[in-house]
Amino acid sequence: MKLLLNGVWHCDFQLLEGERIQTGSFRDVISADGSSRFQPEPDRYHLYVSFACPFAHRTILARQLKRLENVISMSVLSPDWGDPNGWIFGNWDNTTPDTVNGCDYLHQVYIKAKPDFTGRVTVPVLWDKKTGTIVNNESADILRMLATEFDAFGNDMLELYPKQLKAEIDQINAFVSGRINIGVYKVGFASSQADYDVAIEQLFDALDTIEARLTGKQYLVSDRLTEADIRLFVTLVRFDVAYYGALNCNLRHLTDYPNLWNYTRHIYHLPNVAQTVKFDHIKRHYYDTYEGMINRRIVPKGPLLDWDAPSLQACH
Ligand SMILES: N[C@@H](CCC(=O)N[C@@H](CS)C(=O)NCC(=O)O)C(=O)O
């Protein structure tokens, strides 16, 4: 396990049996109503992201769709998380250096914010250039802030969390988060066959539920794009290219689900979305980085193939 322990980086930390460590995170919020010391301002905040990570992708998409590219700056880390230093800057196409703190590794950014930080060093990170600290490193919070607090500087026509749909969005978010966003990792990182068997069944049950929900519908909630779609899209767009093979989520392909496949392509083709999807980063990250963390003795459940389907006559 890679993590910071009281501000010291460990690239291969082993927890003892039954041992738990108290880990920290940053959960401040930016608020347009003046209730927080973090106010929305142009050129004040910086996002640290990876194009490989679905959680970071939520924030990249919100920044793009709300047209905040010139309001909130962004650094892109390398997809190679296998490096002993964890998330590192710039050695791959479409990555950038750390233009704000000049760091080589993301763990150094965490230490700048909190010199005795203990916990995992994850993306995304929302950094405040004014006070020199991390505002928040939880993607759900960052997505919500970009969606709702920056309307004075971005596209205020696009409401990703409209008041009248909040309850329904919260409800579907809770389902998609546990069963799908995290569900793919429960499958991929299952350490025993029994855990895997349960996890894969739950994941595909959840996909079946969403497939049914999307019958005759373009979006998850109402007839408009909301943050619920952003949160589902980032997992679905990675499904066949990464999770199916690298994380053993191979009962069915995304393309086997007519509604889910159509839905994912529809969102992919919305303006400004495709440019946020970097399949080379995604594949590199999941196939290269996680190899070794996956129990290859687990027998995958799929693929489900219809051997009884009639064969076509060969053409002569
Ligand atoms: N709860 C966090 C989780 C983010 C997360 O797990 N990011 C992964 C990449 S997909 C990461 O940075 N992992 C590094 C680690 O766990 O050490 C969020 O949603 O922002």
SSE layout and pairings?
Blueprint: E1 3-5, E2 8-10, E3 45-49, H1 54-65, E4 73-76, H2 106-113, E5 125-128, E6 133-136, H3 139-148, H4 166-181, H5 183-188, H6 193-213, H7 227-246, H8 258-268, H9 279-289
Parallel strand pairs: 3-4
Antiparallel strand pairs: 1-2, 3-5, 5-6
The structure holds glutathione (GSH).
Brief rundown of the structure:
Helix content is 36%, strand content 7%. With 316 residues, it is of the alpha+beta class. The chain has a 4-stranded mixed β-sheet with strand order 4-3-5-6, sandwiched between helices. Strands 1-2 form a two-stranded antiparallel ribbon.
Written overview of the protein:
This protein is α+β, with helices and mostly antiparallel strands and 316 residues long. It has 2 domains: 3-148, Glutaredoxin, CATH 3.40.30; 163-289, Glutathione S-transferase Yfyf (Class Pi), Chain A, domain 2, CATH 1.20.1050. It is built from 9 helices and 6 strands; from the N terminus they run E-E-E-H-E-H-E-E-H-H-H-H-H-H-H. The strands form 2 sheets. It has a 4-stranded mixed beta sheet with strand order 4-3-5-6, with helices on both faces. Strands 1-2 form a two-stranded antiparallel ribbon. Helix 1 packs parallel to helix 3, helix 4 (166-181) runs antiparallel to helix 6 and helix 4 (166-181) packs parallel to helix 7 (227-246). Glutathione is lined by residues 2, 53, 55, 120-124, 138-139.
